[in-house]
Amino acid sequence: MFTRPHFKDYIMAKSVAIVVLFTIAFSLLFLYFIPHRNEAYKAIGLLTLGFSFFIFFIYRGAKKIQKELSTINKYLKNLEKIDKIDYKTHFYILEFEEINQNLMKVLKSAKKREDVKQRYNAKLKLKNRQRADMISAIAHEFRNPIASIMGYSQTLQDDPDIPKPLQEKFLAKIYNNGNKIETLLARLIMWNKFESKEANIHKSTFDIYRLVSEVKQSLEESYKERTIHLLGNAREVEADRTLIEVVIKNLLENALKYSKDTVTINITDTEIYVIDKGVGIREKEVDKVTKKFYRSGTHSWDNSMGLGLSIVKTILNMHHTKLNIASREGEGSTFSFII
User: Fold this and answer.
1) From CA 253, how far away is CA 17, in angstroms rounded?
2) Please, which residues have CB within 8 angstroms of residue 25's CB and are 6 or more apart in sequence?
3) pLDDT single digits (tens) 200-243
4) pTM of the model
5) Which of 320, 321, 324, 289 is nearest to 307 (CA)?
6) In 10 A of CB 177, how many CB atoms?
7) What gap in Å lies between CA 110 and CA 276, rounded to an integer?
8) Which domains does the chain have, with CATH numbers?
9) CA–CA distance, 302 with 289 (Å, rounded to integer)
10) Is 337 helix (H, G, I), strand (E, B) or coil?
11) Mind listing the pLDDT tens digit for each residue in 289-313?
C-alpha cells in the first residue's frame, strides 16, 4: 500500500536525486574537458562537497519547516484538548509565514468558540442539576403536608362519630397544612418572577414597626406555643411594603423553625435584626445558605426548597441592601439588614 512521504523526506528525496544527477553530469563534463585526471578529480571532489553542503542546508530547512507544520497540525488535531495556545514562530518563506499566521488566527478563533461552548455547557449542566434538585426539594416539601391532609381527611371519613373537639383539631390540622402548601406555592411563584425578571419594586412610605407587628401577630397565631419578642420603636421607611413583608416573614419563620426558645426581632435606627437561639449554621455553610436551591447536607439546618433565603437576598438586593448572617452551630443565628 502506497504511503505518502513526510514533507522533509519528499524534499530530501527530490534534492538528492537532482544532486546525484547533476554530480554525474558535471563529473563526466570535467573528465571530458579537463585533460589532467588529478585536476578533474579535484574539481569533482569540490563539486561533491559543494552539493553536500547544499543538501545539508536543504535538509535543515526542510526539517525546520516540517517541525513547524507538525506543530500547527498538532494544534488542529488536539484543539479540544489544548487549554492554551502559546505558539510563536516565523518562517523564512513568506508564503509559509502567511499560512502560519492565518492558521494561528483560525486556531485562536476556534479555541475561543470552543471555550464559549464549554462555558455554555457548564452553565447548562448547572441549570439542569439545579432544576433536578428543585424538583426533589418540591417533592420533599409537599409530601408531608399532603400526607397529613390525606390522613386526617381519611380519618374523618372513616369515623363519622369522632368527638366534636377532635374533629375541630383534625380540621385545624388540615387547614394549617393547606396554608403550608399555599405558602410553598407562593414562594415558587415569586421565585419564578425573580428568575424571569418580571418582579418590580413599588416603593411607598410606611411604618416598619407596624409591619413587623402585623407579621409577628400572624406567625404567633400559626405557632401558638412560640413567642416572638419585638424591640424598637416606630420608624418610617421607603421601600416595597409587600416585598419587605416577605423578607420579615421568611426570616422569622426560619428562626421559629430552627429554634425552640423565644425569637427576638429588634428594630434600630438603621437596621433590623432577627435573633434566635437555635441550632445555628455551620461556618462553612453560612455563605451558601442564600444560594438558589441550596440544601444543607445535615438535618440541623435545611433551607426549605433552597429558596427562602435566596428570595430574601434577591429582595434586599433590589432595595440596594444585603442580608448579613452571623451564626454559630449549636448557639443560634442573627440575620440582619439595613433599611
Assistant:
1) 91
2) none
3) 788 899 999 999 999 898 888 878 888 899 999 999 999 988 88
4) 0.53
5) 289
6) 19
7) 55
8) 7-108 (no CATH), 128-195 (1.10.287.130), 204-338 (3.30.565.10)
9) 9
10) strand
11) 766 555 554 444 344 545 678 888 8
